[in-house]
Every structure is written in structure tokens, then in C-alpha cells.
């Protein structure tokens, strides 16, 4: 890359949302360095990016001091997106110590780089900071209902700690920051086995497996298509807000997990059996963002209807799984 | 120390509660290594311990890898108490990044030592994990009302993250752990300038300064005398519980800050002016532990009445400040 060009660093840029964000920024002609430990990234996400003009991949774990290949570009880094952390419970619970350190040490390494370079820093936090919420829909001022002693705490409390660190850098005028609280997001390039509900249901429907629903399926979620989420992240990063408040990003269109399963079954034509399994510990019962702040500050709201997003996602998974049942328009 | 003897490591052992705990364990004939960065410890606390049989001091910061002087004793360490972190808002807010890392990286360094040595680990967490509580008195199952974006978050969220890490080590069977949630504690050897309400009020009453009360003084606290707290910590460490739940430690005797100020004024005979100042951001309105779990598991409850504890504390501060107004029995 030419010495004069500005560079955007994306930690976790080979992951689900990260790879879409990277692709979009490359589309816009930006120079992007992806730093990723490939813990949960799909190799094929990376293959979609490799060789594209402006793209550089550095394998590394943000828990460790930042790699030399990143540091030598420090003078040109103007934006740092932190999307690095396994986000589905079965994945982040494999090594809870690493999950916590990714959020705290990893975020701190990137914040120090932001301080050193003057780059603006965006943390992708999560609706999980609200835990199993008692307030509905969730507004940013709601302080949450998180069990700090349970098996989800490494992620939920790790993200809360990462937010605390990030806002402290802002308060101390050490860095310009933005904090996004991302609600459930779905789309192509999700990991088929990551244990999250959309990918679970679609992959089960497209194969010979039972379709499993945790609990009785009346718990709700609100799903945002990934292209809408990428729009929001870029708008938030580039907005000239003061950055001292987190911003919910997600789709307020709430539905039950049972409803979602029905839509997936209808869309794929699956005849697989529906099986109800016990609800995992601390699983949230309801989840829906209030996005008034994002609308006001960013002029953003989701545009992709669930039916369209699900159709694209089913089509992608069908191809990914090597099957083409009643193919839906991509 | 003889090679065969068991050693107790106390991180933060030169601080207020830490120095009392160290003295008690030395009284019991134990070998104690204090690891402390002397960030907030009073040098005189350390002078009370230095030279006592069984006592070793190592200066070091648990944010960094553990010092060689600790590691070379690893084979004999059987208990690790983590009391290391500035605990008053003015102190822990000076360097919020360091506060967060003390709780997360520091706790993790000690947990790794516990895993390596098989030593039992006790984390001193805090009533601050409940934030500004909506449930009163606070039971351990209450998930708290903590602002993870505010100026107290480096401490509150740091401790919540430290709890999450500690319980993950227990769940993964990497270490035997105990977690104490310590409520307001007072007594001799508090730092005169640490900005906490008991030391503030006594030091102001004993000098020519106005006696300042945050807010209108109707906010409540519950104060535990330090000898009771030390009893509880040792009992918790030595108890054969499964260690998978935190235990509140504190005195459920609740009073308003105004009541406390009146008692201090009466006890010291102060004629200083009472001044009301704005309530700091996120200051909790009520704070009182439910200690049923500690009673049941440890057979413990506080024994020192507030009048006795305050008298001893006033007497100590009077001597410490080089004045002896109406001397109270020590």
C-alpha cells in the first residue's frame, strides 16, 4: 500500500460481521488491515477478501501485544474497529479466561494504539450487557440484569468491562471513541456451527437433523440483517458525536424463536422434526433494542425485511452446505 | 523461613484490611508474604508488620507478571488472598485503566498461581458489584444496578469481571476459590485521605476543617469493624464450602450518613461546621448486606458494636493526626 494512504484496522475482521465490514470498506476503496486470531472465523470468509486491492491480513491475537506487522503501519491508522471476540455461548465458553482477556486486554491494547496514533476507536459491545433484561425494549440507559458469577459472565462482563475501559479513555481524553451495542445479527458468512439461533435453525432445516428450540420457544429475539449492521457501524464510526454514550444497533422487529423456526421451516420446505430442549442457564427471555438514539444521531434504521434477509441467508447456507433444496432468490 | 512451612500470600496486604489480616495471621504463627505496590498503602501499616516473625514483604504490582520473589516460594504457597485494589473512588479514579487491569489481569495472575500451586484463592470483591441497589438489603443473588459507562465502572465492573474470572476457574476445576463481597469496613489504619465516609468524617472532626456530607445525608451505609471483617475472611478461606457462590461480608446495622456524622461529632466533641456537598455521580443511596449466607456457611456475624468500633477508630485517628482531644478508650 502507498505510504500516504490512510489505513483502517479491523480486529476480528475475518469473523461474521467483521468480514462484511471489511468487504464494504474495500468496496469504498479503503485500505484495510484485518487482525484476527482465526479462532472462530471461517477460512472461506478470509478467502473472499484475500487478493482484493487494499486488503492486508495479519494473524494475531489481541490478548497479546499487537504484532509488528500492525505496529509498523501505526502512523497511517486512522480508524480502529474492535470486533474481536467469539460471540456465541458454546464458542466463548470453551475458554472463558481467553474470552475475558480478549475483551479487557485486547480492547486495552487497541485503545493504547488509538491513543498513540490518534486513530478513532470503535468498540463493538453487545446487547448481552443488558443480560436477561427487565426493561423492554432496552434503552441505553438501562443498566442490565447480568449474572456476574455464571457461565455467560466471561462474555457479558467482559464486554461491560471493555465498555468501562473505552469510556475511561474518552473521559481522560486519551482517545476518541465510539461504542456500539450490537443486537442479534444474521446473514451469509455466519458460522454454521456457532450455536446461534438463526444459523442453528437454518442448518438443521437444510440437513437431516431435528430442529431444536431451546425452552418453549416463546423467548423473543430481534434480528438485524448484516448489511444494515455494517451501515450502522460505519455511520457510527464516522459520526461527529461526542462518543461518551453507547449506541444500540439492531432491528427492533421482535419475534419469538418459535415464529422464527416456522419461517425457516416454510422457507426451506423442511419436514424435520421440531424438538424442544432445556433453556441454557441465564438465557435471556426477551431481547429488543430501542434504537431511538441511533435514529437521532446517525439517521439510521434497518431497511432489510426479515423475509428478504432470511431468504438470502437460507440460500447462502444451502450453497454452503452443498445442497440446493427449493432454492430461494439470493 | 523454613522450607517445610506453608506460606500465605496476601496481595494488597499493606492496605487497610490487608494489614489487619496479615497481622492476625502472623499472630496465629503463620508465614505470610505480602505483595503490594504501595499505591494506597500507608507506610506505617507496613512498619507495624516489618520485622515480625514469619513476615516477608515483596513490592510489586499484580498487573505485571508476579515477581520472582513470589514465584520462588510457589511450592509452599497454600493460600492466596487478593485484597489488591484501591477501594475509594478518588483513589481508583486517578488511573481507571490501572484499576481495571488490577482487577482483571491482577486477579488472573493470582488465579494462575493458584492453579499452578494448588493453593486456595480468595477474591475480595465488593458491595459495589450491586451498584446503586434497587433491592434492599442486598442478597447475593441480586444482580445489581451498575452503570458500566460511568466513572465508577473501572472499579465496579473490574470487580464484577474479577468475580467472573474467579468462578470460571472454579467451574473449569482449575482452582479452589472463595469470593467475599465486602461491604463498608472501618477501623484503625484506614488512610486519612482516602475519601471514604468514616475516615473523612473523623479526620474532619478532629481537625479544623468543615465536616462534609455528600447530598442530604439521608443515604445509608452499614459499617463493619475491621476485626470482624478479618474474622470473616479467614473463616471463608478455611471453610469447606464448594466456593461456587459469592458471600456477602459486612455489618447489617444500617444508618444514614447524617447519623454517622452526628455520632462522630458527639464522640470527638467537634464544633466544626457541617457542610452539604453535591452527591458524586452514581453514588449508591442505600447499602446494607443480607448476611444470611455468611451466618449459615461460616457461623459468623459481626460482634463489635458501632459505638465501640468508632471509639477505637477515633482514638487511633486522634493519635495518628498528632492530637489527643477528649481521648476515648482504645
From TrEMBL, chains A, B:
CDD domains tied to this protein: UGD_SDR_e
Membrane topology qualifier: Single-pass type II membrane protein
InterPro entries: Epimerase_deHydtase, NAD(P)-bd_dom_sf, UXS-like
Localization, UniProt: Golgi apparatus membrane; Golgi apparatus, Golgi stack membrane
Keyword Methyltransferase: no
Necessary cofactors: NAD(+)
Recorded GO MF terms: NAD+ binding; UDP-glucuronate decarboxylase activity
Cellular component annotations (GO), alphabetically ordered: cytoplasm
Domain of life of the native organism: Bacteria
Pfam families reported in the protein's UniProt record: Epimerase
Positions of the NAD-dependent epimerase/dehydratase domain: 8-250
Keywords, ordered alphabetically: Decarboxylase, Glycoprotein, Golgi apparatus, Lyase, Membrane, NAD, Signal-anchor, Transmembrane, Transmembrane helix
Chief location: Golgi
One GO term of the biological process aspect: UDP-D-xylose biosynthetic process
PANTHER family in the cross-refs: UDP-GLUCURONIC ACID DECARBOXYLASE 1 (PTHR43078:SF6), UDP-GLUCURONIC ACID DECARBOXYLASE-RELATED (PTHR43078)
Protein name, entry field: NAD-dependent epimerase/dehydratase family protein
Lineage of the organism: Bacteria, Pseudomonadati, Pseudomonadota, Alphaproteobacteria, Sphingomonadales
